[in-house]
Amino acid sequence: MEQINAIGRRKAAVARVYVKAGSGKIVINKKELERYFPSSILQFVVKQPLAKLEALDKYDIKINLKGGGFKGQSEAARLAIARALVKINPEDKPALRAEGFMTRDPRSVERKKPGQPKARKKFQFSKR
Q1: Where is the composition biased (Basic and acidic residues) (predicted)?
Q2: How do residues 91-117 score in pLDDT, each as one tens digit?
Q3: Would you put residue 35 in left (φ > 0), alpha (ψ -120 to 50) or beta?
């Protein structure tokens, strides 16, 4: 199997994923998964599509992450991995879609409006 690549986005984070047959090693920005995401919850999020398909030790994955915070980055990586796995085997798509791994979450930060301190918050109103 040659290298398969896919892209995933979430909030301001962009993940480019390169998947090839291997032993289950995940490298993010030239660091091990455990060093890049010390939180076990975020490691779990990144591995979710692989765990669903029981493919944790079938593929070596290299991920380039840019932008956003750690939560957005982990979810962008999850989407990219899911897309790459579907490119490898299209029959896996319904199983991943059922878990919600194939959906790009469209929610992002609302812009700040002029004349307001934040996106929706207003300055205190004074009647007199």
Answers
A1: 96-113
A2: 999 999 999 999 999 999 999 999 999
A3: alpha
Task: Give the pair of three-digit tokens for residue 28.
Answer: 């993010």
How far is it, in rounded angstroms, from Cα 92 to Cα 85?
8
Query: What mean pLDDT value characterizes the chain?
Result: 93
How far is Cα 74 from Cα 9, in angstroms, rounded to an integer? Answer: 10
3-state helix, strand, coil in the chain (%, to 5): 35, 25, 40
**Residues 55 and 90: beta-carbon distance below 8 Å:** no
Q: Which amino acid is at 91?
A: E
Element (H, E) at 66: strand 59-66
Residue type, 78: R
